[in-house]
Amino acid sequence: MQEKLIILDFGSQTTQLIGRRVREMNTYCEIVPYNKFPAGDVSVKGVILSGSPFSVYDAASFRATLSDFRGKIPTLGICYGAQLMAHEAGGRVEPAGLREYGRANLQNIDGSDELLRGIAGGSQVWMSHGDTITALPQSFRVVASTKEVANAAYKIDGEQTWGVQFHPEVFHTEDGPALLQNFIRVCGCRQDWTPASFIDATVASLKQQLGSDRVALALSGGVDSSVAAMLLSKAIGKNLTCIFVDNGLLRKDEFEAVLESYANMGLSVTGVNAKERFYAGLKGVTEPEKKRKIIGKGFIDVFEEEAHKLQGIRWLAQGTIYPDIIESLSITGATIKSHHNVGGLPDKMNLKVVEPLRLLFKDEVRRVGRELGLAEEFISRHPFPGPGLGVRILGDITPEKVRMLQEADHIFIQGLRTDGLYHTVWQAGAILLPVQSVGVMGDERTYENVVALRAVLSTDGMTADWAPLPYPFLARISNEIISKVKGVNRVVYDISSKPPATIEWE
């Protein structure tokens, strides 16, 4: 039985970061909604309560049934999670006056406390809350403070239960990893969850789930679907058929290149040219979410037709990963953006969905791929959005706009490779903007299109910083795009980070 920690998601922007930090310590964890704690699951070794955008006093604030776990298994409340436990036990939580945001330093640390073992006075932490605990309930004991926050961390006597009003999961909390490691140790976790153990467990699970059924996999050429294909191939062998769809929104020459790359991997791959079908469906559509849904439905329709051509297909496999699911529907119910590979299939297809990677972050997928022996060209390939260039052409999509963007993007990506910059950034691409600007080319005045370049640094796509590419490189790429791509007379560089901006522009 796979032991695990449960992270209850109360809607914090850093909930997923808690999960990544725990998994980096070779400990499996699952993020579940605040009200979905799996009571009775004996494989759960501990629980972490995340932060939240709400106050405990908000009528709409999220509440968990604390009696399901408090006092039964080790529990750690972070920020809102700490305030919620204190509030429901009779403590006092009040507005902080001024929002407590930014760096602070721990003091008055209880050196004997198991959670804070090895953390010295003065250790920097990151605060981000509007409320603060001003009075602790009976049996709640302060184990650390800061200059401004008297109850920065507490322990409940007689329980392995703690609350901290800072965020140990963020980079700015210097001893955050040590605190989380201490908690994992308290939980008694073996810390043996590795890429190799994931592969063994997943292949065994797929064999049991799929049996002798035939499976069609939506292949994209990226690391996610490639790793999914290898896992499925290990589990069911020739019962796997991969389908790669050219939706007309791929990078330049990508359809042919991907099919060639898979030729020697022992996979059965069918290529489907559906460019005109997608262009027709997208004609005149400008609203981003509508474009995503049209592209997603187009994929489903193509797969439905291809699946009917193949005898005995009962499953559709997808390379869905954790951020796809997280960003498709937040805990508050607000859609950030839809993904064509999240949300299931039409009932008429009579196919079930299998997603071997749905609980992995991107960096974890890459580690699993290396363990499987996947070629580095797949592992190190930049992420590419499911809707492809459809979300990098702002406004309506036409074959001519696709041509322009493919050429500009190709110059940018090849330039990154030539200058040894490709592997220093996490993701890069060009965006065609729905504006035209005045320019002068030769002796003529032009009124043509603007291309934005985007390159970011990240590990999993949940947060990202813009990449400070060298000015001479940007100048050369700009000149090359303007001189070689007909219809473009201006190039700009995006220097916004995520959050508040997203990586893609739509």
Polypeptide structure, described:
- α4 packs across α10 and α5 (223-236) packs across α10 (362-372).
- Strands 2-1-3-4-9-8-7 form a seven-stranded mixed beta sheet, sandwiched between helices. Strands 12-11-10-13-14 form a five-stranded parallel beta sheet, sandwiched between helices.
- The chain is 31% helix and 24% strand.
- A hairpin with a 2-residue loop joins β15 and β16.
- It is built from 13 helices and 18 strands.
- It is an alpha/beta fold and 506 residues long.
What integer is the average pLDDT?
89
Q: What's the arrangement of strands in the largest beta sheet?
A: 2-1-3-4-9-8-7
Instruction: Please state roughly what percent of the residues sit in beta strands, choosing from under 5%, 5-15%, 15-25%, 25-35%, 35-45% or over 45%.
Output: 15-25%
Largest sheet: 7 strands, mixed
Tally the helices.
13
N- to C-terminal separation? 41 Å
Structural features:
506 residues, alpha/beta, seven-stranded mixed β-sheet, five-stranded parallel β-sheet, 31% helix, globular
Topology:
Blueprint: E1 4-9, H1 15-24, E2 29-33, E3 44-49, E4 75-78, H2 80-88, E5 92-105, E6 124-135, E7 140-144, E8 153-156, E9 161-164, H3 176-187, H4 195-210, E10 214-219, H5 223-236, E11 240-246, H6 254-262, E12 269-273, H7 275-282, H8 288-309, E13 313-317, H9 322-328, E14 352-354, H10 362-372, H11 376-379, H12 399-418, E15 427-441, E16 444-457, E17 465-466, H13 471-484, E18 488-493
Parallel strand pairs: 1-2, 1-3, 3-4, 4-9, 10-11, 10-13, 11-12, 13-14, 16-18
Antiparallel strand pairs: 5-6, 7-8, 8-9, 15-16, 16-17
Helix pairs in contact: 4-5, 4-10, 5-10, 7-8, 12-13
